[in-house]
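Side project, low priority. Logging it here so it doesn't get lost.
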Amino acid sequence: MAQVISQNATIYLPDGAAGRQVSVLVFYPGIQVNGQIGKVYMPPLIKSAVPEWFSKYVIVIPNQHTSDWGQVKSEYRIALTNAELTEKDLSIGIFSGSGNQSSSIQLSLAQEKLLNLFLMDPTSTGKIVENVKKLKAASTICYLTYNPNNWDRYPAIKAGFAKLAQTVGELARLDKSSHMKIPGVLLTTWKSQIEATLTSATGITSIKENNKSFMKLNECDCGCGGSKSSCSSKDINYMFFGNLETIKRMVDELLTMDPSQVDSILKDGHDWAVDHIASSVDDIQEVFNFIKGQSNIENDRFAEGGQYLKTFESFLKR
């Protein structure tokens, strides 16, 4: 990941992506928090939720909620040109005070062609509601995570979330998290759905080297190495085994981390992660018990002279 610090923003560029199209995600911060402006506190909020995005997409963090949008856009596009990257699409996140109707981004938002709009406990009244209406009409996918109780000191804003949530529609979610945790909550809640719309700078290389596989453009996604039109493995569910390998790799990596550090992260309001692992164990256990039972039946069926033909196990090893 390369980091470019411009006059109005910090721009994070994925490494080794020259010549590719890539999604650009701009996350506008809120007002100063404990003396820190957005360029300081906003990157950690995004990294805590989706750290891998910094190596897949272009991430732009404007310095402040008042940073001029025209300047920010000009600066990240210069950085893209210098890195030989092409902007495929644009998504914008609005946190807290950058929702103010007088902010530069709100004055310009409806004129942009956006893929996604992420509303992270923003100022709920004024121009932002009209911007959401216009963007939704132009097919922008709008997400909202909010907690009115975080705005007790501002009754009008607290009351305004009902209308904003109604305007956003089905992807509006009321959450009990504190104000500063909501950016992470929004991104982790809808991560898979958001990623399905984005173009990553990785995974479309045209070579295989050093025992690491890279998917070719138009390569079959089953893992056989052929093209989509000439798949050589129609009879084997490679996706099943590929997903098992992915699960094993991630579990192995998690288990190498410092347990006390991981535990500290989980206790910092991230019970959802514990719940996800618990539900995943149940799902995998069910599949394991089913296949283990079936493979034992097959082994009994093919027993010869007391020696079992462990067909399933040998296939997995192969």
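Brief comment: Residues 204-219, 221-225, 304-312 have pLDDT under 50 and may be disordered.
Revisit when time allows.
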